[in-house]
């Protein structure tokens, strides 16, 4: 069986173990690193042609190509990359808030099922006591079998509700573990 966790522990786990958020953090680091490359000059290309080309003489040609960025291009690219980082950070914060809301909803449902389970446990024990009294009265002849049969059925219903609550609580614990 899994151990119960508090809401604050669920929120702590959300930041540490959620693959969406850890992947988003790594991607943010990647695009933040790209901001530094905005002002880099393009690489210089060198080409050399050596040999005989359409003549008996040995030809040699070396060419160097260097492209230059238009004026203001580096600043515009840096601004665009920084805006991309800013937008992605805000999207990540929004996703984290959405996940916190889902965790809170699942946790509240878990607490509700826990209280419901306690209610049905108390009803189960109450019906068990009433059933014991009904059996004693049946032995003394004060009542018929119908009362004890009805109480037995009510006790079984309460016991079934306890089991249903436990199953729902296990499902919610697994959901909290996944989120």
Structural write-up:
The structure is a single chain. It is built from 4 helices and 2 strands, in the order ααββαα. The radius of gyration is 36 Å and the shape is rod-shaped. Helix content is 73%, strand content 8%. α1 packs antiparallel against α3 and α3 (73-140) packs antiparallel against α4. The protein starts with 6 loop residues before the first helix and ends with a helix. It has a two-stranded antiparallel ribbon with strand order 1-2. The protein has helices at residues 7-17, 19-35, 73-140, 145-178; strands at residues 45-51, 59-65.
Brief description of this entry?
The chain is 73% helix and 8% strand. It is mainly α and 179 residues long.
Properties at a glance:
179 residues; mainly alpha; two-stranded antiparallel ribbon; 4 helices; rod-shaped
